[in-house]
Specification:
0% strand; globular
């Protein structure tokens, strides 16, 4: 099967997914700041590193998480 470029398997290695470990390590305000930073990063580099569509999907993934909608579900 093809690897998900938005939430690849190496982010899910081990018992805890990376994004959940980050959320647990930060306060709610800090985690919101982290998510906002990720959205800004993918907006900033849109189409400059990876395909624009892939960067747009990544920024939407973080924006959904920021909006309280877990994109993994």
């Amino acid at each position: 099967s093809m690897t998900d470029p938005i939430n690849p398997n190496h982010y899910k290695a081990g018992e805890v997914e990376c994004i959940d470990a980050i959320a647990s390590a930060l306060s709610p305000a800090e985690f919101r700041g982290y998510l906002r930073g990720q959205v800004m990063k993918y907006c900033w580099r849109l189409g400059l590193k990876d395909a624009a569509e892939q960067d747009a999907r990544k920024l939407l993934w973080y924006a959904k998480m920021l909006a309280g909608q877990d994109p993994r579900k």
